[in-house]
Amino acid sequence: MQPEHSGTEAVAPPPTAALAAVLAPAFLRKLDRLHLTVRRSLSTRPGNTPMPRGAQGSGIELENYRAYGAGDDLRHLDWNAYGRLDQLLIKTFRAEREAPLHLFIDTSASMAFPTADDKFVFSLCLAASFAYVSLRRNDPVRIVGLSEVWPQRHLGSPFFRHRDALLRLRDFLLQLRPYGKTALAAGIAAALRDHRSPGVAVVISDFLMEPEMYEAALQQLAARRFTVAALRVIGPGERDPSSLFRRGRLTDAETGRQRFITLSQDNLIRYQQALAAHLERLQEFCNRCEIVYSTTDTDAGLEQILFRDLPALGLLR
Amino acid sequence: MGFAEPLALLFAGLYGILVVFYLWERWRRRVAVPSLLLWEVVPEDTLRARRFRPDLLFLLQLLLLACLIAGLARPYFSDGASLPPRGRHVFVLDTSASMQAREARGTRFDEARGQALDLLKSLQADEEVMLITTAPSPEVLVNFTRERDAVAQALERLAPTDTGSDLSVALAFADSAMQRSDVPTELEVFSDIPRSQLPEPGRDHAKVFQVGETDVNIGIEALQIFQGRFQDYRRARAYVLVENFGHREGHGFLTVRLENQVVNRSGFTLPPRESKEFVVHGFRGPGRVVAQIEATDALDADNVAFGWIRPVRPVRLLLVSAASPLVDDLRQLVTATPALQLSVVDPRTFSADQSRQADLVIFNRFVPDVQPATNTLYLYPPRENTLFPVAGDAENIEVLDWDTHHPALQSLRPLAALPLQRARIVTPPAWSQVLLWSRTSAQEFPLALAGEDNGHRVACITFDLESEGLLGSDNLNFFLFFMNLLGWLAPSGEETAVVRTGEVTPLGPLADGPVRVQYPHGEVVTLPAGQATLQPLYAGEYRVSVDGTSRLLLANFFDPVESDIGRSSKEPTMPPQPATHGVQTIPASDRHEYGSWLYDAAAALLLFEWAVARRRSV
């Protein structure tokens, strides 16, 4: 499905090589060591009937024995125990739970700029890594692209449930392009309407929007008992734009609005102060809402993020 | 004002490139950013989308570029000239004595000057004129200028001199000026010399305005006063040479005066191109001699000549000698020479005080321990003396060489191989100059030497003059040499000099103070400090005064080339051959370029622009 193009587009080749590097066997072996830490939001596996409290859980793993009561399923009687103890004991089983992973990727045009930062490609690689970590534990993974160009402000994949789906997942990622305006809150809201089961929600974005927008988006996830992680993707060009230009007409990648700026030393300091305030407010909000937050620098590298930064935050272990 | 390299102004096209760069910088430089959210806090440049609004930096760069382009174009301003000259003219005006010759309509010089003024008036306003005079030596009187009045005034002030001139040097001057000129330059010569007689360098491209036709001139070609060093006015004689330079017989009178008193007046008739010599004597005193011709001719400058008869002051000789034939010889010499006075002193009674009363002391075979403070002559010094160390004696020797440049030997031809009986072999002192040389088998040695020691003239004759016989008939050369040596040792101290016009004459030793010169026409001029020479341009009397003392300088015009005023032909004024025309630009000598100032301004602007840009970026 092709998006409706906006005025400002990032026309870039699909990041085939970058994703191939992530999904290469050598890197996947490194990812095998990682686990997604889920503190809540477990759901039953599909096919298992949800049971009332105290009811027999579905599953195959033996949990305990209890005395037979009227109405218990005779198939769960332990006849060996009856033979030894002359008591009717019912075997109870632990219900199997799963932690579905929802990967929300900001696919607005802002993710394509500055082009040197490769924020969007980095986001896709990060998402692919998360997806593999979950699929290896047989947890379902769903990827959702968020942009105004998509119908209903998002483009969601079906749940991928096994490692075999890795190539299909890759193909879906390659479909995504950074187009149009950001639609984080609306896109997440629309995506959640289809899948209400809680799980882990990882939002990968540059969060370059009004705070109200990202707060609304993240609050939706937190309110639905998702384990939420917000990964703020940033690059060196965004941190220090003096390497990109000294003077010129700045054009907003999403709105097309322009602003004439001379990047004097004073103005650079003003910009960097605004950036720091923006990041600080985002982090403060995440802390308040018990959302795992991390600023991921594209020039730090994927391994730094996956094997050091995120484990330190407890999102991965 | 103008530009030496106007093509450099084409670089003004860089203005457009600068504007394009500026616009590109401001309008074409688009930077896509993820969001302007973080840029809201940064103040926006005040620009209008559809209007070019240059800022201070742009204006500075524009000014800097303007300075550089203007500097490359080498701007200049010229004195009083806003346009390059159309052409140039070099006026060469002959100011030699022959131009004083009278013609039917005035003097030749007046006619030539009138032609020059007429030509000057006919020139265009943007043409430049240089004025060169020829006598006594070429001089650029007015350099290239458009100021007609300045040239006209210089012409009006000019007068021909009583000197000759070398027109070839003047034309070489003009030719070099033409070579340096980068505009069409014409050479106009105003002279009585026909084109065919002009020297090569300027003849082909010179426009000659020849003046003068007459050849009637009788002039004094020479006036010589013959007066020996020790002769008084009674023995003085004047020789006057008068020549008829014309091609017809000439008549006239020659009057010779001594201080306005007529000494001789003679009539003469001279055939064409012939000369006659007049000998005048019987002068009744010393003083100024004026020879003057009264004749009907065209040139006055050579009709008068000046001479000078010296007043003779007796020379007091003191002879320090024992009784000897030399004393007798000198007594006879003094008796025959009124200008000499002799006193004889024995060496044993000689004292230094006695020498103060003498103009010249002669020591014969004696050298005092203390040298007298006057001019001295030593004859055959003894073996033991402090002044002339004697290395030995020589006998039967000859004069082998002599110094012809010394005044004591002028007009003399000492006879080589003339035998001398004996002489002292002395070592010449450092202050001395050897006049006569001889040699033995072992060495050369002086027979006579002279020089100045402690401000006094000293001479020494090392051979025995007494035994040779001063007045011997065979020794006439020695006698003349001895008299010349006396003349050199007792200078006359003349205050009057007779020179030729055009010659640079040293004024001699002068007292400190301003030197005032009264010229023959009565004009009094104070010479610049340090000038010790005078170049008389006119014949006549020059009175040089310093600090109350005065000296007379008599200048004569003796130049047969100039006196010969006749010309073989009067050639019509011919148009010159076209000269090579140059590019019409103001000559570099008249330009005052100020491109370097613009480069300096550009450097200053560059620094200022850099400072402004840096301030903006801080």
Instruction: Give the percentage of residues in beta strands of chain B.
Output: 25-35%
Please provide the ordered H/E string of secondary-structure elements of chain A.
HHEEHEEEHEEHHEHEHEEHEH
Which radius of gyration of chain A do the C-alpha atoms yield? 23 Å
Major β-sheet annotation of chain B: 8 strands, mixed
Distance between the termini of chain B: 43 Å
Shape of chain B, please?
flat
Please give the order of strands in the largest beta sheet of chain A.
Answer: 7-6-5-8-9-12
- Radius of gyration of chain B (CA) equals 40 Å
Mean of pLDDT of chain A = 84
Any overview of this molecule?
The complex is a heterodimer of chains A (317) and B (618). By secondary structure, chain A is of the alpha/beta class. Helices cover 36% and strands 20% of the residues of chain A. Chain A has ten helices and twelve strands. Chain A has a six-stranded mixed β-sheet, sandwiched between helices. A two-stranded antiparallel sheet of chain A has the order 1-4. A two-stranded antiparallel ribbon of chain A has the order 2-3. In chain A, a hairpin with a 7-residue loop joins strand 6 and strand 7. The longest helix of chain A has 24 residues. Chain A starts with 15 loop residues before the first helix and ends with a helix. The relative contact order of chain A is 0.16. The N terminus of chain A is likely disordered. About 1% of the residues of chain B have low confidence. Chain B has twelve helices and 35 strands. In chain B, strand 30 and strand 31 form a beta hairpin. In chain B, 22% of the residues lie in helices and 33% in strands. Chain B is flat and about 135 Å long. Chain B has an eight-stranded mixed β-sheet, with helices on one face. A five-stranded mixed β-sheet of chain B has the order 8-7-4-9-10, sandwiched between helices. Classes of the chains: A alpha/beta (317), B alpha+beta (618). Chains A and B meet through strand 10, strand 11 and helix 9 of A and helix 1 and strand 2 of B.
